[in-house]
Amino acid sequence: MRAAVVRAFGGPEAVEIVEVAIPEPGPRQVRIKVAAGALNPVDAAVRAGLFGGAGRTLGLGWDVAGTVDAVGVAAAWRVGDPVVALVPGVAEPLGAHAEYVVVAADAVAAAPVSVDAVHAGTLPLNGLTAVQALDLLDLAPGGSLLVTGAAGAVGGFAVRLAAHRGIEVTGHARAGDEELVRSLGAVRFTAGGVEPGSVDAVLDAAVLGEPALQWVRDGGAYVGVHPGAHPAPVRGVRTDAVEVAADGTGLAELVRLVDAGVLTLRVAAAYPLEKAAEAHGRLAEGGVRGRLVLVP
Q1: Cβ neighbours of residue 229 closer than 8 Å, sequence gap 6 or more
Q2: Helix or strand or coil: residue 289?
Q3: What fold does the segment set 126-241 form as a domain?
Q4: How far apart (Å, rounded) are the C-alpha atoms in residues 252 and 107?
Q5: Quick one: CA torsion of 288, 214, 201, 50, rounded to 10 degrees?
Q6: Which of 128, 16, 13 is nearest to 62 (CA)?
């Protein structure tokens, strides 16, 4: 089968399409025939060597939408089931940007019925990151939250999910994105900032760090999206960062929200797998609204 990998760190040109053996599922695993999977900034970080692994072949791709192709012992899925899943981590030799991928059975959820596979392939990583970050913040309905990077993939999901939970959201993004951010459920918008100490919590999807921390009231909460890179606590503000984990149950709830019309899945463009390097180049240019998706 074909798979997108990096064997030497670098820019988009470092992405290679190679022929590798089709992986076999073990106990409590399933093999998915990949129909689509989003390209995310974490893939660019792997490609550039930010996670290490020099001298090894590293697979790319964390998001997958497709159909179950084979099942291991005690895997409660059937061949032919349309599914989505998160393929977490960067240590495995193969990621989701391939024709087939093996994942833990409990990382899998039934695919949305209201969208195609290209759109479904944008949900797992960004949706789970957003919901797990909100769970870390643990805001009650009526609480106030500022989301940085509110027009991006993680930030956009966070705005919509928080608003759905009854949280009062301020979206922080570029001035030209105000209409989009408000359409996601933000009651306020800023392209600059807010008064120091004026919100209960910040979900820092744009990785602003210290400046965003200043907007949180004393005793509030801050959650970032880069594990280990969040600022130190000040003024009693609890600080943390989400380390996204595969969660089939949580993903199934996100799928339910997609099919209920609560969440909208945004695709900027789709590329065939063999043009993965070109897609990486487009991602590196910036300004993408919605996800770039690779289709084997």
Answers
A1: 207, 209, 241
A2: coil
A3: Rossmann fold (3.40.50)
A4: 10
A5: 50
A6: 128
Q: What is the pLDDT of residue 91?
A: 56
170 neighbors 155 (Cβ within 8 angstroms) = no
Vertex 249 angle, CA 248 and 252, to 5°: 85
Residue entry with tokens 């503000």: 237
Q: By 3-state DSSP, what share of the chain in percent is helix, strand and coil, each rounded to 5? A: 30, 30, 40
Other CB atoms closer than 10 Å to residue 161's CB: what's the count? 25
**Which residues belong to CATH 3.90.180.10 in the chain?**
2-123+265-295
Pairing of strands 199-204, 216-224: parallel
Contact between 100 and 22 under an 8 Å Cβ cutoff? The reply is yes
Is pLDDT of 201 > 70?
yes
How far CA 40 is from CA of 15, 73, 81, 88, in Å, comes to 14, 32, 25, 12
Asked if pLDDT for residue 41 goes beyond 70, the answer is yes
Give φ, ψ of 285 to 5 degrees: -70, -25
Q: Is 290 left (phi over 0), alpha (psi -120 to 50) or beta?
A: left
pLDDT of residue 55: 86
Q: Which CATH class is domain 2-123+265-295?
A: alpha beta
pLDDT at 65: 98
Tens-digit pLDDT profile for residues 129-161? 999 999 999 999 999 999 999 999 999 999 999
